[in-house]
Amino acid sequence: MNVFRLIGDLSHLLAILILLWKIWKTRSCSGISGKSQFLFALVFTTRYLDLFTNFISPYNTFMKIVYIVCSCVTVYFIYVKFKATYDSNHDTFRVEFLVVPVGGLAFLVNHDFTPLEILWTFSIYLESVAILPQLFMISKTGEAETITSHYLFALGAYRALYIVNWVYRYYFEGFFDLIAIVAGCVQTILYCDFFYLYITKVLQGKKLSLPA
Amino acid sequence: SKTKKKKDEL
């Protein structure tokens, strides 16, 4: 473990908790893409199948359980509990255009052609594009609530910090995982225009509005 | 290539 990965994990945890808090406090999931949250739940459930077979550390196990539980609760909030506030008219990204190609790629490009490894690879590829329905929804509504932009910033920062972690591990541990690195770079690049808007607008106290 | 390492990252 290194400080970059630790801060990255905490940023990820913060993002997940910000989102849960926003939905619970405002009792509304307006502006939130249920499709992205569904994809994140899929990412965690396919990545952490080794939760009980591959013990790394108490921290690792704890975080995996928190991620799985929180992502499922978030999906439950959006599609069940606060369903009335779910903005399905703007959450129209065709997720099958993500899941199918990512599924195919996971079969073709992986480290090991075993079910667990293919599912892990699927999860890594899927995570890199899982935010697209959310970014698409914001581009359609033309704006995002400030709390939602803080959520997105923390979520984008997590994988950006992981890239620093991978550079660190390459130089100090001689360890690297090209699949995770390439997917992580794609994932972070997708946030770039959002990062720009967040820093130039939200941090200036303005509302985040995308040129529709 | 990737050194075979247990998946210790989240």
Automatic annotation (TrEMBL), chain A:
Pfam families cross-referenced by the UniProt entry: ER_lumen_recept
Membrane topology: Multi-pass membrane protein
Main location as per UniProt: endoplasmic reticulum
Taxonomy, superkingdom: Eukaryota
BP term (GO), one: protein retention in ER lumen
A GO term from the CC aspect: endoplasmic reticulum membrane
Residue spans crossing the bilayer: 62-80, 92-110, 122-139, 151-172, 178-199
Keywords: Endoplasmic reticulum, ER-Golgi transport, Membrane, Protein transport, Receptor, Transmembrane, Transmembrane helix, Transport
Localization, UniProt: Endoplasmic reticulum membrane
Key word Ribonucleoprotein present: no
Keyword Transport found: yes
MF terms in GO: ER retention sequence binding
Family under the similarity heading: Belongs to the ERD2 family.
Protein name: ER lumen protein-retaining receptor
Organism encoding this protein: Acanthaster planci
